[in-house]
Amino acid sequence: MPHVPILMPQLGESITEATIMQLLVHPGDALQADQEVIEVETNKAVMGVTTSCAGTVVSLNVVEGEVVPVGAVLGIVEATEEEIERSGAQALSESGQNQEENPAVGKKSPADAGAHFRTEGEYRETSAVPRNSGHGLPVPIGVRGAHYLSPRIRARMDELGITEADMAYIVGTGAGGRITISDFEKFLEYVDGWPSRQASPMRRSVADSMQRTWRRPIASSGRPVLMAPIILHRKKHPRRPGYTLYFVRALALALAEAPECAGYMVGGRILTPKRIDLGVAVQVTDGVLVPVMRSVNEHTLDESIDEFNKIVQQARSRRLDDVYKGGGIATVTNFGGFGLTFGTPMPLPSESLILGVGAVQKVPVWSDEVQCFIPVEQANITASFDHRVVDGGDIGRLMQRIAYYLEHPELL
Fold first, then answer.
1. Which residues pair with 366 in a beta bridge?
2. Residues whose CB is less than 8 angstroms from the CB of residue 117 and which lie 6 or more positions away in sequence, other chains included
């Protein structure tokens, strides 16, 4: 019958090893699925290691008091083909059978040092899950098994139009948190009959964009900016420019000085934009459209008013001219109009930077001149960016320049 390894699981992000405290089973013992077999201790807690399938203990490769690295084979369980299929456990390959005779428990080779798995492709998922032993809280493990989806499940997903992101709602009961076909079908049965509506093409487009964006390491940084200069400037301006346009212009001038902040990483190269084309997020029914203004840094605030008003109106009516579609290097989204004071917007997949603008608030700020708190009108701005391309310091300097231009609107 096939053999299934008992592996030392990842017991925490910074934990690389654990001490064997107690062996709870012995060779020849019959096991139930998810039975606790070994108690281990880390520098944070005492917890148990379990098996993912029923079977018989063939061997235990460790002794009490031994320090064992993550990914080591703690023992071997013999299970039937039917039980392995039911539980989703991963049997040893032929190369893995050799490790039963000569298990490398105490050491790791340089090739697999620091890895969760002993050799490339040998174990596709862990069969060991940490459990609470009464001495501390269990620590969830993040291993490949939790993300593996079998061909059978993928076929059902394709049949129903379900994406991997949709599977986040399902709690897996298989090895290492793996989602089994039974988990999938039970979830479908559970939500059957819930009130629902068909997602519109616009909603599906937004969902697809955000899912692709999330494949990158997106970070956010924010700060407040004084709004009194803009408010005063707008009151005196005969055409009353939209507040969002001020932020679009400030971002354009700041990026003209540091275009690398809106760069793209392609392979080992970072590409710098050739033009400052900026998008403006416009809320429409069941989604968002982002028309793009071209070479914004080359046109003054006054020169940009007509174009800005035009693209916003076209976006709201969903009748954008082709010249305003796509090709932006960054976007400005003003969620302050909805009363939101802070947010962490997501850039489009084709961009690496987005600037979010919060609602204007009157807050107390200490004044050294008069030695008391005075009311100040300010708004929070947030920059979300691709952290592969730039770091917090780069974005901090960019935000300082944006704030400078906003506080000196005559330069816009």
1. 373
2. 71, 123, 144
CATH code: domain of residue 91: 2.40.50.100
Give me the number of domains the chain comprises. 2
Residue that terminates a domain, selected from 114, 136, 158: 136
- Tokens in use for 103? 């298990």
Nearest to 37 by CA among 66, 74, 9, 2: 74
Query: Where would I find the H helices in 144-297?
Result: 151-160, 181-191, 201-213, 228-236, 243-257
- Count the neighbouring beta carbons within 10 Å of the beta carbon of residue 107: 8
* Count of beta carbons in the 10 Å neighbourhood of residue 29: 14
SS3 338: helix
Rg (CA), the chain: 29
Backbone dihedral angles phi then psi of residue 278, each to the nearest 5 degrees: -115, 140
Identity of the residue numbered 156: R
What confidence score (pLDDT) does residue 43 get?
62
Q: How far apart are CA 71 and CA 380, in angstroms?
A: 46
Residues 84-124 have pLDDT tens digits of 888 888 888 654 543 333 343 333 333 333 332 223 333 33
**Exposure string over 247-267, b if 16+ CB within 10 A, otherwise e:** bbbbbbbbbeebbebbbbeee
